[in-house]
Structure formats: structure tokens, C-alpha cells
Amino acid sequence: MLRVKEGDLSAYEVLVEQFKQPVMNLLHRLIGDPDEAEDIAQNVFLQVWKTRERYEPASKFTTWLFTIARNLGLNEIRRRARHPADSLDEPRPDNDGQPIRIVEDSTSSIPADASLSAELRAKVEEALMDLPEKQRTALMLCRDGGVSYEEIAEVLGGISLTAVKSIIFRGRAVLKNRLKPYLKSGEWHKK
Fold first, then answer.
1. Measured distance CA(132)–CA(29) in Å, rounded
2. Could you give all domains of the chain from N- to C-terminal order, each with its CATH number?
3. What is the rounded distance in angstroms from the CA atom of residue 108 to the CA atom of residue 104?
4. N or C, where is the chain less crowded by C-beta within 10 Å?
């Protein structure tokens, strides 16, 4: 990042390549829309480039990066709350007032194991999206981003280390309780 700060475009390209997936993962889990997460991730890296001269290596680069990603993700959540999208179930004038229906193919030849695995992934995603934003963000940074508790505290707005531990503990407890019917042992396995 120090080379990027000096305007080194090749260093910037390496930085984007190295961190684009963790940023997109965080944003996808934060807002629940993979396409929108990709768009916001592009904005994150645009913001990194625009503000590169103000970067100070007081803390780790990833803390700064994930803070930018979280802030832009929260901005998108607020924008959606102010301007909700049209529902596919609402009558539309161009459809003779009839709701649009999505028809699923019931003749799918997906094997049973793959179907169960897809169902489990969907249930996990659903449970994650139902968590409060701070719990969801903390869990994603901890698990997918490999970010330390200290960094998570900074990303979440400078909260205490104890608060981070509590947020992660409560988030895991909620997920365990909600997903217990889908777990073989009912035990939470840490990575």
C-alpha cells in the first residue's frame, strides 16, 4: 500500500488482485446480493485509489480496507431502505395487472446429496443474513477474512476487544441454535 500511496499503478493492480475476493465475500455476506457486492467492491478499490495519499500505516492495511468496504456496504443497505426495489409479486401495468411468477423446473436431475448440500448452504446464508449487521460482519471477517479480533474492533468502529468477542460469541450462538437441525452433532466446529 505504501507503493500505491506513491502512485504505483502496478502495485495497485497487485493489491486489487490479492484482496478483491475477501472484499467481495464480506460485501456479499453484508448485503446478500453477489452482483451488487461486486459493484461495491469495485467502488471500494476506486476509493482506495482516490484516497491513497491519505493512507497512514498506523494500523494494518486490511483494517483500513475492510472499514471502507463495510462503510460502502452499509451505505448500500441504507440506500435500499430509502428506495426499495419493485417486487416481482406486485402487479405491474405492463403485465395486465397480474403478478409475475417465477416457475421452477421440477424435472431437475440434481443428485440428492447435491440438493441437500445446496439446501444447507441456503439455510446458512439465510441465517447469516438474519444476524444483526455487526454480528454478521464480525463473523465474516473472523472466519472468511482471517482478520484478528483487534482489527475487527477497528473495522466495527473502534469498539472494545471484549465487545468483539461478545458479538462473535452471540452470533455463533444464534447460528448454532438456528442451524442445529442441520448439524449432525449440534456442535459448532471452529476452523
1. 12
2. 2-82 (1.10.1740.10), 113-182 (1.10.10.10)
3. 9
4. C
Q: Are 155 and 119 in contact (CB under 8 A)?
A: no
Cβ–Cβ < 8 Å for 1, 13: no
Predicted model pTM: 0.62
Sequential pLDDT tens for the chain (191 residues): 999 999 999 999 999 999 999 999 889 888 888 889 999 999 999 999 999 998 888 878 888 999 999 899 888 888 877 876 644 444 444 444 444 333 344 443 444 455 556 777 778 778 888 888 888 888 888 876 678 888 888 888 888 989 989 999 998 899 888 888 876 655 555 44
> How far is residue 111 from each of residues 119, 173, 182, measured CA to CA in Å?
12, 32, 18
Give 176's contacts (C-beta < 8 A, 6+ positions apart): 183, 186, 188
C-alpha cell at 135: 454480528
The CA-to-CA distance between both ends of the chain, in Å, stands at: 29
* Helix pair 133-143, 61-82: axis angle to 10 deg: 150
- The C-alpha cell 495497485 sits at 12
Residue 36 backbone dihedrals phi, psi, to 5 degrees: -65, -35
